[in-house]
Design brief:
The protein is mainly beta. The strands form two sheets. Strands 2, 4, 5, 6, 9, 10 and 11 form a seven-stranded mixed β-sheet that branches.
Length: about 120
């Protein structure tokens, strides 16, 4: 079992920045991939970014160059640094981790980009 808790969401104006955090606990040594997903109202949940246990990152085209995913193994935390935020980035952001046999989700944190 892995426990996942997100934090850091909030409201920001277009062009602003936010950093999301995802605190991990439990059997974290089993984790292979960590990622952030988001879901806008009325839309399906979509991948934002992933990072493997060896640090290889992957991004959705819509956030490339604006978002950066990173992990701190010592702190057992995954971060999503979001810059140049756009209204289209509004939604609930979810942290996801995958082990060899299971996937775990956090409860989500809301990000609202509006003037």
């Amino acid at each position: 079992q892995v426990q996942v808790v997100e934090s850091g969401g909030g409201s920001v104006q277009p062009g602003g920045s936010l950093r999301l955090s995802c605190a991990l606990s439990g059997n974290t040594f089993l984790i292979r991939i960590m990622g952030w997903y988001r879901q806008a109202p009325g839309k399906e949940r979509e991948l934002v970014a992933t990072i493997t246990s060896d640090g290889s990152a992957n991004y959705a085209n819509s956030v490339k160059g604006r978002f950066t995913i990173s992990s701190d193994n010592a702190k057992k935390t995954v971060y999503l640094q979001m810059s140049s935020l756009e209204p289209e980035d509004t939604g609930a952001y979810y942290c996801n981790v995958r082990t060899w046999g299971s996937a775990y989700w956090g409860q989500g944190t809301q990000v609202t980009v509006s003037s």
